[in-house]
Amino acid sequence: MEIRTASSPKDVKHYTTERLREEFLIQNLFVPNEIKLVYSHIDRIITGAAVPLSPLTLTAGEEIRAEYFLQRREMGIINIGGKGTVTIDGTVYELENKYGIYIGMGSKDIVFNSADTSNPAKFYINSAPAHKTYPTVLIKPEDCAFVELGSLESSNHRTIRKYILPGQVESCQLVMGMTSLKPGSVWNTMPCHTHDRRMEVYLYFEMPEDALVFHYMGEPNETRHIVMRNEEAVISPSWSIHSGSGTQAYTFIWGMVGENQDFDDMDGAAMSDIK
């Protein structure tokens, strides 16, 4: 498990491109027949992926000093690949493309597998510390709360599906969802915002090999950008904006952890203040 430390906004404004990418960009997440995990000191989120060509068992590892991975944690998973299964303490859950699952604290044995190794599952993982056990829930995209926002005229016509959030799938602090841009739209989350009480991680996917997303971060009056490619993730501290513009439409998964789960608890940044 790779460990990433927290960064001060006063320091980040002096980072080079290379340093920005080293601190916040997560590359090579989806490695065949491996579980890759990145632990961030920012709200103790773990971001990762599993691409099973044979059964892969999730273990705690030395880094979190636990008897098993979810001894003190909860987890959200969304499959962006072929059909697969997640077996939790002997119960098998089938996850088709864009199906998700919430796994509550205390689940011990977690095994990932693919239905077809020529088109393996790609399980994207967010995990956060937990204080209470909530039920494990299989989440189908059609059952998610969703909203359609933006317009083609403003290049941000998009659909937001909320997978894990209060009132739908209960969790201690983890909130997850997926945003899909319509063809011809390239902007997400603009006008932009911050949320001091939660951090966020974005995974960009469904992009051609030669496509790019310019992910904007930093304080509203001190913005920086990170060039991102297909199936790469980025860590967004609570003090940072998190907005992107692509060379064409794309999809991204957002995961948030922190003090509250209020989706609308945002501090908007005026367009006139963006620098």
From TrEMBL:
Listed Pfam families: KduI (PF04962)
Entry's cofactor comment: Binds 1 zinc ion per subunit.
Cofactor or coenzyme needed: Zn(2+)
Pathway: Glycan metabolism; pectin degradation; 2-dehydro-3-deoxy-D-gluconate from pectin: step 4/5
EC number: 5.3.1.17
GO MF annotation list: 4-deoxy-L-threo-5-hexosulose-uronate ketol-isomerase activity; zinc ion binding
UniProt entry tagged with the keyword Isomerase: yes
Record's keyword terms, sorted: Isomerase, Metal-binding, Zinc
Catalytic activity: 5-dehydro-4-deoxy-D-glucuronate = 3-deoxy-D-glycero-2,5-hexodiulosonate
Top-level taxon in the UniProt lineage: Bacteria
InterPro entries: KduI, KduI/IolB_isomerase, KduI_N, RmlC-like_jellyroll, RmlC_Cupin_sf
Top EC class for this record: isomerase
Swiss-Prot/TrEMBL GO biological process terms: D-galacturonate catabolic process; D-glucuronate catabolic process; pectin catabolic process
HAMAP family: KduI
Similarity remark: Belongs to the KduI family.
Protein name per its UniProtKB record: 4-deoxy-L-threo-5-hexosulose-uronate ketol-isomerase
Source organism of this protein record: Anaerocolumna aminovalerica
